[in-house]
Amino acid sequence: MPQTIPLVLSDDHVARVAPAEGLIHDPAWRLLEEVDLDALADRLTQGRPRPIPIFAYGSLIWNPGFEVQDRRRATAIGWHRDFSLSLDHFRGTPERPGLMLALASGGSCEGLVLDIAPGTERDSLRAILKRELVAHELAANACWIEVETARGREQALTFYADPVDTPMARLTLPQQAQRLASAAGAAGSGAEYLLRTARGLAELGIHDAYIWTLQRLVAEEIDAASPAGCPPPD
Protein backbone atom coordinates (compact mmCIF):
# COMPACT_ATOMS: atom_id res chain seq x y z
CA MET A 1 0.00 0.00 0.00
CA PRO A 2 1.52 3.38 -0.96
CA GLN A 3 2.57 5.75 1.81
CA THR A 4 0.81 9.07 2.06
CA ILE A 5 2.39 12.36 3.05
CA PRO A 6 2.04 12.86 6.84
CA LEU A 7 -0.78 15.10 7.99
CA VAL A 8 -0.10 18.49 9.52
CA LEU A 9 -3.59 19.01 10.93
CA SER A 10 -3.90 17.28 14.33
CA ASP A 11 -6.17 16.66 17.30
CA ASP A 12 -4.43 19.57 19.00
CA HIS A 13 -5.48 21.89 16.18
CA VAL A 14 -9.07 20.66 16.43
CA ALA A 15 -9.06 21.25 20.20
CA ARG A 16 -8.09 24.87 19.60
CA VAL A 17 -11.25 25.58 17.57
CA ALA A 18 -13.83 27.09 19.92
CA PRO A 19 -17.06 25.08 20.08
CA ALA A 20 -20.34 26.67 19.02
CA GLU A 21 -23.98 26.07 19.75
CA GLY A 22 -26.31 25.89 16.83
CA LEU A 23 -28.93 23.89 14.97
CA ILE A 24 -28.56 20.36 13.60
CA HIS A 25 -30.97 21.01 10.70
CA ASP A 26 -32.37 23.98 8.86
CA PRO A 27 -35.67 24.64 10.71
CA ALA A 28 -37.42 25.33 7.38
CA TRP A 29 -36.78 21.79 6.13
CA ARG A 30 -39.45 19.09 5.97
CA LEU A 31 -37.60 16.10 7.38
CA LEU A 32 -37.93 12.73 5.66
CA GLU A 33 -40.06 10.25 7.59
CA GLU A 34 -39.67 6.47 7.39
CA VAL A 35 -42.33 6.15 4.69
CA ASP A 36 -40.51 8.80 2.63
CA LEU A 37 -37.16 7.08 3.15
CA ASP A 38 -38.56 3.73 2.05
CA ALA A 39 -40.15 5.20 -1.06
CA LEU A 40 -36.95 7.01 -1.98
CA ALA A 41 -34.91 3.85 -1.39
CA ASP A 42 -37.22 1.84 -3.64
CA ARG A 43 -36.96 4.42 -6.41
CA LEU A 44 -33.17 4.63 -6.19
CA THR A 45 -32.48 0.90 -6.05
CA GLN A 46 -35.14 -0.61 -8.32
CA GLY A 47 -33.43 -2.74 -10.94
CA ARG A 48 -30.00 -2.00 -9.48
CA PRO A 49 -27.34 -4.58 -8.48
CA ARG A 50 -27.35 -6.52 -5.24
CA PRO A 51 -25.69 -6.15 -2.86
CA ILE A 52 -26.31 -2.43 -3.12
CA PRO A 53 -22.99 -0.56 -3.57
CA ILE A 54 -22.45 2.85 -1.95
CA PHE A 55 -19.56 5.05 -3.08
CA ALA A 56 -17.97 6.72 -0.03
CA TYR A 57 -15.67 9.70 -0.45
CA GLY A 58 -16.03 11.59 2.86
CA SER A 59 -17.57 10.74 6.22
CA LEU A 60 -19.02 7.44 5.00
CA ILE A 61 -15.42 6.19 4.79
CA TRP A 62 -14.76 6.63 8.50
CA ASN A 63 -18.32 6.36 9.79
CA PRO A 64 -20.56 4.37 7.43
CA GLY A 65 -23.40 4.00 9.95
CA PHE A 66 -24.82 0.86 8.31
CA GLU A 67 -23.93 -2.83 8.09
CA VAL A 68 -21.28 -3.35 5.42
CA GLN A 69 -20.78 -6.75 3.79
CA ASP A 70 -17.72 -5.84 1.75
CA ARG A 71 -15.58 -2.80 1.02
CA ARG A 72 -13.18 -2.19 -1.84
CA ARG A 73 -11.12 0.65 -3.23
CA ALA A 74 -12.79 2.53 -6.04
CA THR A 75 -12.16 5.53 -8.27
CA ALA A 76 -15.11 7.70 -9.25
CA ILE A 77 -14.68 8.50 -12.90
CA GLY A 78 -15.27 12.14 -13.85
CA TRP A 79 -15.62 13.47 -10.28
CA HIS A 80 -13.44 15.11 -7.65
CA ARG A 81 -13.84 16.13 -4.00
CA ASP A 82 -14.87 19.71 -3.34
CA PHE A 83 -15.73 21.51 -0.10
CA SER A 84 -18.60 23.41 -1.66
CA LEU A 85 -21.70 22.76 0.49
CA SER A 86 -22.28 25.85 2.63
CA LEU A 87 -23.54 25.25 6.18
CA ASP A 88 -25.16 27.55 8.72
CA HIS A 89 -26.18 24.54 10.84
CA PHE A 90 -24.70 21.13 11.76
CA ARG A 91 -20.95 21.94 11.59
CA GLY A 92 -21.57 25.66 11.23
CA THR A 93 -23.64 28.62 12.36
CA PRO A 94 -24.66 31.84 10.60
CA GLU A 95 -21.82 33.60 12.46
CA ARG A 96 -19.28 30.84 11.75
CA PRO A 97 -20.46 29.12 8.56
CA GLY A 98 -19.03 25.77 7.61
CA LEU A 99 -18.40 23.67 4.54
CA MET A 100 -19.07 20.03 3.72
CA LEU A 101 -17.70 17.83 0.96
CA ALA A 102 -19.48 17.17 -2.30
CA LEU A 103 -18.41 15.71 -5.62
CA ALA A 104 -17.83 18.11 -8.48
CA SER A 105 -17.60 17.26 -12.17
CA GLY A 106 -14.20 16.57 -13.64
CA GLY A 107 -11.10 14.65 -12.69
CA SER A 108 -11.22 11.55 -10.52
CA CYS A 109 -11.79 10.69 -6.88
CA GLU A 110 -10.46 7.69 -4.99
CA GLY A 111 -12.67 6.31 -2.25
CA LEU A 112 -14.46 3.14 -1.22
CA VAL A 113 -17.38 1.11 -2.45
CA LEU A 114 -19.31 -0.20 0.56
CA ASP A 115 -21.70 -3.05 -0.16
CA ILE A 116 -24.81 -3.05 2.03
CA ALA A 117 -25.05 -6.37 3.86
CA PRO A 118 -27.84 -8.51 2.34
CA GLY A 119 -30.85 -8.74 4.61
CA THR A 120 -30.24 -5.26 6.06
CA GLU A 121 -31.28 -3.24 3.01
CA ARG A 122 -34.34 -1.57 4.51
CA ASP A 123 -32.69 -0.48 7.75
CA SER A 124 -29.38 0.38 6.10
CA LEU A 125 -30.96 2.49 3.37
CA ARG A 126 -33.15 4.26 5.91
CA ALA A 127 -30.03 5.11 7.92
CA ILE A 128 -28.03 6.26 4.90
CA LEU A 129 -30.77 8.35 3.32
CA LYS A 130 -31.86 9.90 6.61
CA ARG A 131 -28.28 10.93 7.28
CA GLU A 132 -27.24 12.03 3.81
CA LEU A 133 -30.44 13.56 2.43
CA VAL A 134 -32.23 14.48 5.68
CA ALA A 135 -35.14 16.42 4.17
CA HIS A 136 -37.47 16.61 1.19
CA GLU A 137 -35.63 19.73 0.06
CA LEU A 138 -32.40 17.70 -0.39
CA ALA A 139 -33.90 14.46 -1.70
CA ALA A 140 -32.64 15.00 -5.26
CA ASN A 141 -29.02 14.69 -4.14
CA ALA A 142 -28.57 10.96 -4.70
CA CYS A 143 -27.42 9.43 -7.96
CA TRP A 144 -25.63 6.47 -9.49
CA ILE A 145 -22.15 7.10 -10.84
CA GLU A 146 -19.54 5.01 -12.63
CA VAL A 147 -16.59 3.78 -10.59
CA GLU A 148 -13.51 1.73 -11.36
CA THR A 149 -12.62 -1.10 -8.97
CA ALA A 150 -10.48 -4.25 -9.11
CA ARG A 151 -13.58 -5.88 -10.60
CA GLY A 152 -13.70 -3.39 -13.47
CA ARG A 153 -16.32 -0.72 -14.19
CA GLU A 154 -19.28 -0.66 -11.80
CA GLN A 155 -22.18 1.58 -10.87
CA ALA A 156 -22.48 2.80 -7.29
CA LEU A 157 -24.92 5.03 -5.43
CA THR A 158 -23.50 8.25 -4.05
CA PHE A 159 -24.62 11.61 -2.73
CA TYR A 160 -24.13 15.29 -3.61
CA ALA A 161 -22.50 14.76 -6.99
CA ASP A 162 -22.97 18.22 -8.52
CA PRO A 163 -25.38 19.20 -5.72
CA VAL A 164 -28.79 20.68 -6.46
CA ASP A 165 -31.24 22.70 -4.37
CA THR A 166 -28.69 23.36 -1.62
CA PRO A 167 -26.60 26.42 -0.70
CA MET A 168 -23.21 26.37 -2.41
CA ALA A 169 -20.00 28.25 -1.69
CA ARG A 170 -17.62 28.74 -4.60
CA LEU A 171 -14.45 29.59 -2.71
CA THR A 172 -10.75 29.51 -3.47
CA LEU A 173 -8.63 26.98 -1.60
CA PRO A 174 -7.34 29.62 0.89
CA GLN A 175 -10.92 30.81 1.46
CA GLN A 176 -12.05 27.25 2.10
CA ALA A 177 -9.25 26.85 4.64
CA GLN A 178 -10.21 30.07 6.41
CA ARG A 179 -13.80 28.94 6.73
CA LEU A 180 -13.00 25.40 7.85
CA ALA A 181 -10.51 26.66 10.43
CA SER A 182 -13.18 28.68 12.24
CA ALA A 183 -16.41 26.78 11.49
CA ALA A 184 -18.20 24.97 14.30
CA GLY A 185 -21.75 24.04 15.21
CA ALA A 186 -23.92 21.52 16.96
CA ALA A 187 -22.18 18.55 15.29
CA GLY A 188 -18.62 19.77 15.84
CA SER A 189 -16.09 21.73 13.83
CA GLY A 190 -15.09 21.86 10.21
CA ALA A 191 -11.49 21.11 11.18
CA GLU A 192 -12.57 17.90 12.89
CA TYR A 193 -14.52 16.77 9.82
CA LEU A 194 -11.56 17.49 7.56
CA LEU A 195 -9.11 15.71 9.87
CA ARG A 196 -11.24 12.60 10.19
CA THR A 197 -11.68 12.46 6.43
CA ALA A 198 -7.96 12.89 5.79
CA ARG A 199 -7.15 10.19 8.34
CA GLY A 200 -9.69 7.85 6.79
CA LEU A 201 -8.05 8.32 3.41
CA ALA A 202 -4.55 7.89 4.87
CA GLU A 203 -5.53 4.60 6.49
CA LEU A 204 -6.52 3.36 3.03
CA GLY A 205 -3.29 4.61 1.46
CA ILE A 206 -5.21 7.19 -0.56
CA HIS A 207 -3.50 10.52 -1.18
CA ASP A 208 -5.81 13.26 -2.43
CA ALA A 209 -3.61 16.29 -3.15
CA TYR A 210 -6.56 18.63 -2.65
CA ILE A 211 -7.36 17.27 0.84
CA TRP A 212 -3.68 17.24 1.87
CA THR A 213 -3.17 20.83 0.78
CA LEU A 214 -6.37 21.91 2.50
CA GLN A 215 -5.54 20.22 5.82
CA ARG A 216 -2.15 21.96 5.85
CA LEU A 217 -3.72 25.34 5.17
CA VAL A 218 -6.35 24.79 7.89
CA ALA A 219 -3.61 23.88 10.38
CA GLU A 220 -1.77 27.09 9.47
CA GLU A 221 -4.95 29.16 9.91
CA ILE A 222 -5.58 27.65 13.37
CA ASP A 223 -1.93 28.19 14.37
CA ALA A 224 -2.19 31.84 13.37
CA ALA A 225 -5.47 32.39 15.26
CA SER A 226 -4.63 30.32 18.35
CA PRO A 227 -1.00 29.27 18.82
CA ALA A 228 -0.25 25.89 20.40
CA GLY A 229 -0.68 25.96 24.16
CA CYS A 230 -3.37 28.64 24.03
CA PRO A 231 -7.02 27.92 24.80
CA PRO A 232 -9.60 28.32 22.02
CA PRO A 233 -10.70 31.95 21.51
CA ASP A 234 -14.08 32.93 22.94
Automatic annotation (TrEMBL):
<dbReference type="Pfam" id="PF04752">
    <property type="entry name" value="ChaC"/>
</dbReference>
<dbReference type="GO" id="GO:0006751">
    <property type="term" value="P:glutathione catabolic process"/>
</dbReference>
<dbReference type="GO" id="GO:0016740">
    <property type="term" value="F:transferase activity"/>
</dbReference>
<keyword id="KW-0808">Transferase</keyword>
<dbReference type="InterPro" id="IPR006840">
    <property type="entry name" value="ChaC"/>
</dbReference>
<keyword id="KW-0456">Lyase</keyword>
<protein>
    <recommendedName>
        <fullName>glutathione-specific gamma-glutamylcyclotransferase</fullName>
        <ecNumber>4.3.2.7</ecNumber>
    </recommendedName>
</protein>
<dbReference type="GO" id="GO:0005737">
    <property type="term" value="C:cytoplasm"/>
</dbReference>
<dbReference type="GO" id="GO:0061928">
    <property type="term" value="F:glutathione specific gamma-glutamylcyclotransferase activity"/>
</dbReference>
